[in-house]
Automatic annotation (TrEMBL):
GO CC annotations, alphabetized: mitochondrion
Family classification: Belongs to the zinc-containing alcohol dehydrogenase family. Quinone oxidoreductase subfamily.
Top-level taxon: Eukaryota
Protein name: Enoyl-[acyl-carrier-protein] reductase, mitochondrial
Domain Alcohol dehydrogenase-like C-terminal per the UniProt entry, residue ranges: 164-287
Organism expressing this protein natively: Tachysurus vachellii (Darkbarbel catfish)
GO molecular function: oxidoreductase activity
Subcellular location: Mitochondrion
InterPro entries xref list: ADH-like_C (IPR013149), GroES-like_sf (IPR011032), Mito_Enoyl-ACP_Reductase (IPR051034), NAD(P)-bd_dom_sf (IPR036291)
């Protein structure tokens, strides 16, 4: 059965509707904000025939530093199972920038969770979609829902448009009929990247430099100025996004890849009354810890888009856990345009 191939919980049965679930996501706000883990469930009969699992292979670190130097593969004993524990086999997990920044060491082959920290997702979505669902698409979904009320025909502008978050923004916005102006850094294979983002539904793909050119006004003859700007970069890039917002529009900062502060032009505040906001999906999950409906609604919406072929996983490179050095190195390289996914 597909669900068993996807993943196996090795210890006990969860009372969940098997027809609608085949994998579960860890939602604990206390776990890494940057790592989504795909797991599946199985029945007691399966677990009784499988070997007892008492250990997990994990990538861990004991000091800060260059991730590929300080992270090592270790075998760790799993904790004893308690009444509401679920022992979960983990199949795939992305390396996100937040993991690189913190080196949180949450990549492992199996783990024990409280059943209250797990939510199900349908078993017909791909491993890559499920493994990447909990962070980037959720971030994109929230930013498109919680700051401006967007309707078909509106426009969103974003930088780092080829990031995992950016690709989810493009697809979720396109499904709503919302135009996206997608800003990327120049690179030798720009046309290839532009074609890929356009195929996902990007309305425009432009280079950072274009933000400062008068030609950008041509875009606003075709679609309205953006109500919402999404900033994953900071520095000059963020300031340029702000300049193109419509009066009263909002810029949401969710990342700072350029490691430079955001400067807000005085004129944007006085004459355009723009709103400058921030978003952190981990905080959203904490705030909504007891609001199962909000999380369920978001995951259902995202999984429906995935099922309809409207939301694909970001461009990925699957790397075996043993090759984690290579994956960590690649995750830190610029212009790579491919999310590194550790496959357990
Ligand atoms: N606040 C939240 O809740 C939340 C949630 C998820 C992610 N994030 C943050 O969002 C950002 C993107 O995450 P992700 O997982 O989507 O990333 P990702 O898929 O790994 O992509 C990284 C992106 O950053 C761009 N980039 C790297 N260095 C840059 C620089 N110096 N200047 C401009 N762009 C640069 C890359 O562009 P090139 O291809 O040009 O290198 C690429 O578009 C990160 O800062 C992450 O921590 C925040």
């Amino acid at each position: 059965m597909e669900v068993w191939r996807l993943a196996r919980v090795l210890s006990r049965t969860l009372c969940l509707n098997k027809s609608t679930c085949g994998a579960v996501l860890v939602t604990s706000p206390f776990l890494s904000g940057g790592t989504t883990v795909l797991q599946g469930i199985t029945s007691r009969s399966y677990s009784s025939t499988g070997p007892a699992v008492t250990e997990s292979t994990a990538l861990v670190y004991r000091r800060h530093g260059d991730p590929s130097q300080v992270v090592q593969l270790e075998t760790r004993k799993l904790p004893e199972l308690e009444a509401k524990s679920v022992l979960v086999k983990i199949l795939a997990s992305p390396i996100n920038p937040a993991d690189i920044n913190m080196i949180q060491g949450t990549w492992r082959t199996a783990s024990v969770f409280n059943e209250g920290d797990l939510v199900t997702v349908p078993n017909d979505i791909s491993v890559l979609s499920a493994a990447t669902l909990g962070v980037n698409p959720c971030t994109a979904f929230r930013m498109l829902s919680d700051f401006e009320s967007l309707v078909a025909g509106d426009t969103v502008i974003q930088n780092a448009a080829n990031s995992g978050v950016g690709q989810a923004v493009i697809q979720i916005a396109a499904a709503k009929g919302v135009h996206t102006i997608n800003v990327v850094r120049d690179r030798p294979d720009l046309q290839q990247l532009t074609d890929r983002l356009s195929a996902m539904g990007a309305t425009y793909v432009i280079k950072e430099e274009m933000l400062r050119k008068p030609e950008i006004k041509d875009i606003f003859k075709v679609c309205p100025r953006p109500k919402l700007a999404l900033n994953g970069v900071g520095g000059k890039s963020a300031t340029e996004l702000l300049r193109h917002l419509q009066t009263g529009g909002t810029m949401v900062t969710y990342g700072g890849m350029a490691k430079q502060p955001v400067t807000v032009p005085v004129s944007a505040l006085i004459f355009k009354d723009v709103k400058v906001r921030g978003f952190w999906v981990t905080q959203w999950k904490r705030d909504n810890k007891h609001n199962d409906e909000a999380l369920r609604f978001m995951l259902d919406e995202l999984c429906t888009l995935i099922g309809a072929g409207k939301l694909s996983a970001p461009s990925c490179t699957e790397v075996g856990m043993k090759d984690f050095h290579k994956a960590l190195d690649n995750a830190m390289k610029p212009y790579i345009s491919s999310k590194q996914i550790l496959v357990m």
